[in-house]
């Protein structure tokens, strides 16, 4: 074997070894690519969330290596947490508001001063309706009795006859009894008819005034409630609103949802004041008219009794004169 043939064989062997090494390298690269592709298909593409001012930015990479950037607006009170993790809005804790905003619920949540005002106004309203029921029944009975008395006295011929009929239960004998008593006391001076009538009229006038005082008893509370209830309710409202503003300063918030319940509780006091005052004024005016009508009836009855007294005195004087003329 010559030197040249040996050299040629060595060269061919080296080339074969180089080709084999290149084939192994290519196979390794292909296998690595297959593993990388399979793992990327199994796992999700990573994403990252970062904050850009008040709007978060979401950056994600898909299978092909493309980058996606998404910027979204978030509502107030929600928070984005974690990078590459699931994001969920979390509502921030707000002020705890009262659940019961009915009249009774607001009363229970009110300040003790406002509660005292409300209780007083409710009692005043109860007193108003109690006076209405009691005074209506009283006026109905008295007016009916006084009309019967007026009818009897108007149709009677003498004071004695009228008093006897009234004493049987057909009316009030208060005026006729007073007139009869004065006539008995003035028995020795009956010839002075004007003096007797003046004294009888004075007695009847005093009885009229007493009857007026009795019938107006209990109505003064209506005037008091009607005049003062709105101001008492306004005091409760001012106090409640003052406490609401103090609560605003302590909470350091101007949210209307925080302030509204306290203001509503305060305004409830004013509403109760009006509820107590308006019926009281209306009922007082109604009773004022009814009492005026009753006083007019008493006055008419008193005038009728005075006419009977004058008639009896005229008979007495005429009889005395007749006796004196016959003697």
Walkthrough of the structure:
- This protein has a three-stranded antiparallel sheet with strand order 1-2-3, with no helix packed on it.
- The relative contact order is 0.10.
- With 327 residues, the chain is mainly alpha-helical.
- It has two domains: 45-91, no CATH class; 103-326, no CATH class.
- The protein has eight helices and three strands.
- The N and C termini lie far apart (214 Å).
- A hairpin with a 2-residue loop joins β1 and β2 (55-61).
- Helix content is 74%, strand content 6%.
- α3 packs parallel to α8 and α5 packs across α8 (256-326).
- The model is unreliable at 36-54 and 74-98 (pLDDT under 50).
Outline the fold blueprint:
Blueprint: H1 3-42, E1 47-52, E2 55-61, E3 67-71, H2 103-109, H3 112-155, H4 159-170, H5 174-185, H6 193-216, H7 220-251, H8 256-326
Antiparallel strand pairs: 1-2, 2-3
Query: Which blocks of ≥5 consecutive residues have pLDDT under 50?
Result: 36-54, 74-98
Q: Trace the largest sheet across and list its strands.
A: 1-2-3
What is the helix fraction of residues, given as a range? over 70%
* Strand residues, percent: 5-15%
Helix-and-strand structural type: mainly alpha
Q: How would you sum up the global shape?
A: rod-shaped
Mean pLDDT: 75
Rg over C-alpha atoms, rounded to the nearest angstrom: 54 Å
Number of domains: 2
| End-to-end Cα distance | 214 Å
List keywords for this structure.
6% strand; 327 residues; 3-stranded antiparallel β-sheet; mainly alpha; 2 domains; 8 helices
């Amino acid at each position: 074997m010559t030197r040249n043939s040996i050299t040629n064989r060595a060269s061919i062997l080296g080339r074969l070894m180089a080709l084999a090494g290149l084939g192994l390298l290519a196979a390794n690269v292909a296998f690595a690519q297959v593993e990388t592709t399979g793992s990327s298909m199994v796992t999700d593409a990573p994403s990252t969330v970062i904050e850009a001012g008040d709007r978060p930015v979401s950056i994600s990479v898909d299978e092909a290596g493309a980058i996606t950037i998404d910027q979204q607006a978030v509502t107030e009170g929600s928070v984005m947490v974690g990078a590459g993790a699931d994001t969920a809005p979390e509502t921030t804790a707000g002020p705890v508001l009262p659940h019961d905003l009915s009249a009774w619920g607001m009363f229970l949540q009110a300040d003790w001063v406002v509660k005292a005002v409300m209780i007083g106004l409710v009692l005043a309203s109860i007193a108003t309706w109690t006076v209405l029921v009691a005074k209506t029944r009283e006026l109905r009975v008295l007016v009916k009795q006084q009309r019967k008395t007026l009818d009897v006295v108007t149709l009677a011929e003498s004071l004695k006859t009228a008093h006897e009929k009234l004493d049987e239960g057909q009316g009030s004998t208060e005026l006729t009894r007073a007139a009869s008593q004065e006539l008995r006391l003035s028995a020795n001076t009956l010839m002075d008819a004007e003096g007797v009538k003046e004294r009888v009229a004075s007695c009847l006038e005093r009885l009229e005034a007493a009857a007026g005082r009795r019938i107006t008893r209990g109505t003064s509370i209506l005037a008091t409630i009607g005049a003062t209830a709105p101001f008492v309710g306004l005091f409760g409202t001012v106090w409640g609103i003052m406490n609401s503003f103090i609560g605003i300063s302590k909470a350091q918030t101007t949210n209307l949802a925080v302030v509204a319940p306290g203001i509503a509780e305060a305004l409830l006091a004013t509403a109760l004041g009006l509820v107590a005052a308006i019926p009281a004024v209306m009922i007082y005016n109604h009773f004022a008219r009814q009492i005026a009508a009753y006083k007019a009836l008493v006055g008419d009855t008193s005038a009728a009794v005075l006419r009977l007294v004058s008639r009896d005195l005229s008979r007495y004087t005429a009889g005395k004169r007749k006796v004196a003329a016959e003697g």
